[in-house]
Amino acid sequence: MQSYTKQTPLGSPAHPGPGAVQMRIKTSASPGERLSQTKSMVIPDPGQTQKPITRHRRNQSQHNVSDISTTDHPTILKGEYLNKAKIADGGKKLRKNWTSTWVVLDVNQLLFYKESKQEALTNLKPGCKPEGIDLCGALVEWTSEKSSRKNVFQITTRSGNEFLLQADNSTTICKWHDAIKKTADSLKAKGWEGVFPGKPTLRKANSTEFLSRHGSDSPISKEPKPENRRSLIFKLNYSASDTADKNGVKNRLKKFISRRPSMKTLQEKGIIKDRVFGCHLLTLCAREGTTIPSFVEKCVQAVEKRGLEADGIYRVSGNLATIQKLRFLVDQEDELNLDDCQWEDIHVVTGALKMFFRELPEPLFPYRFFEPFVEAIKTKDDKQRVQAMKKLVHQLPKPNHDTMKLLFKHLQKILTKSLKNLMSTQGIGIVFGPTLMWPELDGGNMAFNMVYQNQIVEFILIECSEIFGPAGK
């Protein structure tokens, strides 16, 4: 191709005017021809892709821009959200806690941000200080034992820190694994790991985790120096699979449980005492060798001694904290003095007695007697109703019968002081109806059952002498 130039005559100004173009005729297209050092402008071919022209021949002859290799440049990933967990700090195991973090791969380190920089600017936060991992001498390997999640790989640094990175998308996590591994390997090839003398690269020699997902790209660990062998072995053992530790804990627990004394031995030594509250009435009476629990007798005696004329006796609630304290002492100690000043409030004693009956595993009126008592109270004839009630009461187990007899005789004494304590038969029936009897299954109408519960207690209280016999018998 030939181009025509207009020569500037001698003596003319060095800089041509706006309309003048300084050009020269190029007669040869040989690539080796020396280019002129004067300013020139070549009219390009419209269909030809332009390449950068170097001013100096030396640069043009020795280098070609298109031939420059990019393998020497480190891989840099701008940022992406991944799941991260730090499982070891300087060789010390940490509890695994997965968090979503913004990961950025820099020249020789991996940076973790709480959020992306764009989000930080949007939220007007002063900035997010990242946590960094130095990839010099780091070990990058896929793992399936450190987490039940899929797509997990581990980064172990020279200082003994261990991190897990995970993503649900396999393509994403493979991209990050390859980039981080490539960066660590390139730093190792350049000898950058020598910046930290005396710290050998960690590698698990017997681990099955060190299996690359893409074939034989696993790095070859160097033989550690003799003076560092002991520390390396310690770190390897510490960061190895903890299956043996788990088995050891299980064995120690089995030995501890096998050597644990039985409940009977603890009871014989007095370490664990049998409960009073929540114990079955038959079991409690058999243990005490009586037909009436001693706690019920003590409460009844205390109320008859100093509470028959108390306003709203059994209706007014006592202090719940004091009642719970009394309950605890009853379960732990054999001797109980209800005349102590801390039980001065008689409503605490009556509250504890009601709590005892409510917490029985089976009520004072046993489950199998609930329906017969309901049918008996429905009897219209008064004499037949009394006889039906009396027959059922005498069919009760001995502890239930004797305890019921003591309680209803006591409640009759409460009624003799009704002008003082303002308690009536109906009031006592409302208090003790759901306390002394309830159905085994709550499938029925609760309000319907409560009506019969109150009526049964009220009727037995009225006919107490006829059902249980005269007082003193």
UniProtKB/TrEMBL annotation:
Subcellular location: Cytoplasm; Membrane
Membrane topology designation: Peripheral membrane protein
Domain Rho-GAP stretches: 279-468
Keyword rRNA-binding: no
Keywords, in A-Z order: Cytoplasm, GTPase activation, Membrane
Family matches, as InterPro entries: PH-like_dom_sf, PH_domain, Rho-GAP, Rho_GTPase_activation_prot, RhoGAP_dom
PROSITE patterns for the chain: PH_DOMAIN, RHOGAP
Presence of keyword Methyltransferase: no
Sequence ranges of Polar residues compositional bias: 1-10, 25-40, 61-72
Stretches assigned to the PH domain: 74-185
Listed Gene3D superfamilies: Pleckstrin-homology domain (PH domain)/Phosphotyrosine-binding domain (PTB), Rho GTPase activation protein
Composition-biased stretches (Basic and acidic residues): 211-227
Sequence segments annotated as region (Disordered): 1-72, 207-227
Matches recorded under SMART domains: PH, RhoGAP
GO cellular component: cytoplasm; membrane
One Pfam family this sequence matches: RhoGAP
Top-rank taxon: Eukaryota
Entry's Gene Ontology BP terms: signal transduction
GO molecular function: GTPase activator activity
Name of the protein this chain belongs to: Rho GTPase-activating protein 15
